[in-house]
Automatic annotation (TrEMBL), chains A, B:
GO terms for molecular function: coenzyme F420 binding; cupric reductase (NADH) activity; ferric-chelate reductase (NADPH) activity; NADP binding; oxidoreductase activity, acting on NAD(P)H. This is Reduced coenzyme F420:NADP oxidoreductase. It holds the Pfam family F420_oxidored. GO terms for cellular component: plasma membrane. SUPFAM superfamilies: NAD(P)-binding Rossmann-fold domains. Residues 2-105 form the Pyrroline-5-carboxylate reductase catalytic N-terminal domain. It comes from the Archaea. GO terms for biological process: copper ion import; NADPH regeneration. Keywords: Oxidoreductase.
């Protein structure tokens, strides 16, 4: 499968790119608003993989539109306030049956800690769904992963990710992509309307990390 | 320490009562709006403990006011819409230094699943804090525990509970109470303002339980 990571030069994009390239045979394409930056980061990911003995993997870097055009699954690894714009930017090059994946969450910080900043339409995942063209399903996933741990191929994951969506086939495909990453378990959390509680978990994880020694870069396991 | 469980005849109250009575030497007092029901349930808990060889524990049942009057720590194990009223009902019998513990969360259900129903003041824990008398600290804890698993003394817990509050001493006492329960780890999640994300985790757990085989009565572990 061909996976484009738009915003794939950022921290969560880096982690997903490295893990998919290292653990699976999927083709990973890095997208960025700046094509040169995408190419540079893609080359850096290749170097990192090469240093671990994976020398037969080629990672391409492109502008977001060119990256999305080449992929079956497009991950919106961009800040929440760019999710709607990014979907609109690539909408014309998506084919029927392509899948958009939304991992972003809105947060604000005050003196007490981080808080979920719920968008007016209900969730960031819903922003993506509202902007998506007909025939392209949106699936929410990878919201609650610690970026540093994900990008460190020496780190055991041993965590869960929650998958939501209204298209069961698309959800199944994203679930398989998630479980292709070693140590990551994908759990079904229902339809897109269940996104806010998943997105709200990310600021909670940051609050816990800040208040407990030895729990930085933490994830969650449902048991 | 003397712990009153107001609403201690309900499912989360039952679980906390049994676990504290079984795992610790704290005195457990059951409170209910109906004193007779409190006495009946307290006797049933004693019978359950007796059947497990714990025959030296006495659990009293009282009306909510009488229960709160006898306790150092008062757990508001009541539905979210009764939290404010219950605090007001017992306010006069609380002493300086007593602690109120809020485990309740607001939820609503629609066709997609359960959702966090955020109160206007920000959280259910905040409702308790706003109603609490001067000198009585409010601590949020025990929001995300599966009641059935908690009440089943044969079940291993192996889960976390998140503790929040603006009074560090009170938080420390509730953390110790929580960790007195075998298999329960208490994590600091900061101040009371961080309550909404914790309360929102409860409907998420229910959604996950409904969509994944073998994950009913689930809890959460931060790792």
């Amino acid at each position: 499968m061909k996976i484009a990571l738009l915003g794939g030069t950022g921290d969560i994009g880096e982690g997903l790119a490295l893990r998919w390239a290292y653990d699976t045979s999927h083709t990973v394409i890095i997208g960025s608003r700046d094509p040169e930056r995408a190419e540079t980061k893609a080359a850096a990911y290749e170097t990192e993989l090469d240093s671990r003995g994976v020398d037969d993997v080629s990672i391409a870097g492109h502008g977001n539109v060119a990256a999305a055009e080449r992929a079956d699954v497009v991950v919106l690894a961009v800040p929440p306030y760019h999710v709607g714009d990014t979907v609109e930017e690539v909408a014309d090059v998506l084919d029927d049956g392509d899948i958009l994946v939304s991992p972003a969450t809105g947060m604000k910080r005050d003196e007490d800690g981080f808080h979920y900043h719920k968008p007016g339409v209900g969730s960031v995942t819903r922003i993506a769904a509202n902007a998506a063209p007909e025939g392209v399903a949106v699936v929410g996933a990878f919201h609650n992963l610690a970026a540093g741990r994900l990008a460190n191929l020496d780190a055991d994951l041993g965590v869960d990710t929650l998958v939501i969506g209204d298209d069961e086939d698309a959800k199944g495909i994203v679930t398989d992509l998630a479980e292709g990453i070693e140590g990551l378990r994908a759990l079904d959390a229902g339809g897109l309307a269940n996104a806010p509680e998943i997105e709200a978990l990310t600021p909670l994880l940051i609050n816990i990390a800040q208040h407990n020694d030895g729990l930085h870069d933490l994830g969650v396991r449902f048991t």
